[in-house]
Specification:
The protein has 425 residues and is mainly α. It has helices at residues 2-24, 35-42, 54-75, 91-110, 115-135, 161-179, 187-190, 192-207, 211-227, 232-251, 254-264, 269-272, 277-289, 314-350, 354-379, 396-420; strands at residues 143-145, 148-153, 158-159. The chain is built from 16 helices and three strands. The chain has a three-stranded antiparallel β-sheet with strand order 1-2-3, covered by helices on one side. Strand 1 and strand 2 form a beta hairpin. Helix 3 (54-75) runs antiparallel to helix 14, helix 9 (211-227) runs antiparallel to helix 10 and helix 15 packs antiparallel against helix 16. Mean pLDDT is 83; it is low at 1-49.
Length: 425
């Protein structure tokens, strides 16, 4: 009897301490305390939090759904072209939906893996990405399209190693900053190794060539270094070196110079039917869309005028069919998504989970930065560059790696919630 009373008293004290902790975290006296959290704490087991950031998941799902609809709309007429004559009208839609299904399965697996695993194995993921970037350059293994060798044929999809490199650099840079935290003020010891790693990736990507992917990867690495607390003067120096490198690459490449000149004056007769062909027709599509658009499926520019309408220039089709309202909704969705990811990262850092926090913010830079570049190219704000719109454009490996990267961010959020409720990650 006395032992039962003692056990009851002990449990009551534990529950009272739990309520006090929740009230200390901002809960009010009338707020309900989840029973599952009481049970897990009172039993001494780590808290098994079933909650997750549902608004973030819904935002991702809505972008994927709208992307699938617009990919179908942009590609449904492609079989009328001799180049795609052997394809059915639903060819690209079916492959896109298969990619989303595969990405969903991969995301379910990734969200189950604790961040400690990713932190431990981040260098090996980075090495694997570099090896695949080498493999894609080997004749017979890598697939070339329009003069670029960026894909490895895998049957179900053509895998693009540069997409894996974006995830790898986010993991590696986050782990690198955690390891170098004590010497981050010393340039040679803290920054030089990361610069070498970035240079290796840059050389491999420019050999494909894929300057757009390198720009995104450089932005991810630089952003994580800055958010990790690298000395401001060092950061400015590295930024100046990267900008100088891009300027030199453009200066010594005639076709890159032509792209810049075409971007500056897309309506010049010299460029309208050449380097500015995509940009000029993209701007025509936005102009036709006006405020409310021509209606879903009613785009004219997708009928062989606008190249790569289902990949790089999907936003132009959205602008023509759904108008300013549709484009504004997509821009707001990516802004909200990026802001939410950064919030999860800041929360993790506040909980002294630096690796998880820096990784999440790196993914925020990836999603927000790549979306900004793609939108800027479509709208004529930036020079034409072959980058897809994350989560929306057609592309199996891009959808797959986007989903895995965001699933790991969701894992960061789940572990944050576990810690804030007294559990263990």
């Amino acid at each position: 009897m006395s032992s039962a009373i003692t056990a009851s008293t002990s449990m009551f004290a534990t529950l009272r301490a739990r309520v006090a902790a929740l009230l200390g975290n901002g809960a009010k006296s009338g707020d309900a305390v989840p029973v599952r959290d009481w049970i897990s704490v009172s039993s001494g087991q780590p808290a098994r939090l079933l909650g997750f950031d549902q608004p973030l998941v819904w935002c991702i799902v809505l972008l994927l759904a709208l992307g699938a609809v617009m990919v179908y709309s942009a590609s449904v007429a492609l079989p009328d072209s001799p180049r795609f004559a052997r394809y059915s009208p639903t060819h690209f839609l079916i492959r896109h939906l298969l990619s989303i299904a595969l990405a969903f399965v991969a995301a379910l697996v990734a969200v189950q893996i604790p961040m400690s695993f990713w932190e431990k194995h981040a260098p090996w993921v980075f090495v694997g990405a570099i090896l695949l970037l080498v493999v894609v350059l080997i004749p017979g293994l890598g697939k070339g399209v329009n003069g670029a060798r960026r894909w490895i044929p895998l049957g179900l999809m053509n895998f693009q190693p540069s997409e894996l490199a974006k995830l790898a650099i986010a993991l590696y840079a986050a782990g690198y900053m955690v390891r170098k935290m004590e010497i981050k003020e010393k340039f040679v010891r803290a920054v030089a190794p990361m610069a070498v790693a970035l240079a290796i990736i840059g050389v491999l990507l420019l050999a494909e060539p894929d300057m757009g992917a390198f720009m995104v990867i450089a932005a991810i690495a630089m952003g994580i270094l800055f958010l990790g607390g690298v000395n401001g003067r060092m950061f400015l120096l590295i930024t100046a070196v990267l900008v100088g490198a891009f300027v030199l690459m453009i200066s010594f490449s005639e076709w890159r110079r032509e792209r810049i000149f075409a971007y500056l004056n897309p309506w010049d007769e010299k460029y309208t039917l050449g380097k500015a062909y995509q940009l000029s027709h993209s701007l025509i599509a936005f102009g036709r869309g006006e405020i409310f658009g021509q209606g879903l499926g009613s785009s004219v520019e997708k009928l062989y005028y606008l190249p790569e309408a289902h990949t790089d220039f999907l936003l132009a089709v959205i602008g023509e069919e759904l108008g300013f309202i549709g484009v504004a909704a997509v821009i707001f969705a990516f802004f909200w998504l990026t802001r939410r990811i950064f919030h999860i990262g800041r929360q993790a850092i506040a909980l002294d989970r630096v690796f998880a926090g820096l990784y999440a913010q790196g993914i925020g830079i990836w999603m927000g930065g790549q979306a900004f570049i793609n939108m800027g190219v479509n709208l004529g704000v930036l020079p034409t560059k072959g980058l897809t719109l994350p989560l929306m454009s057609y592309g199996g490996s891009a959808i797959l790696l986007n989903a895995i990267a965001l699933a790991i961010v969701l894992r960061v959020d789940i572990e944050n919630r576990q810690l804030m409720r007294g559990g263990r990650t």
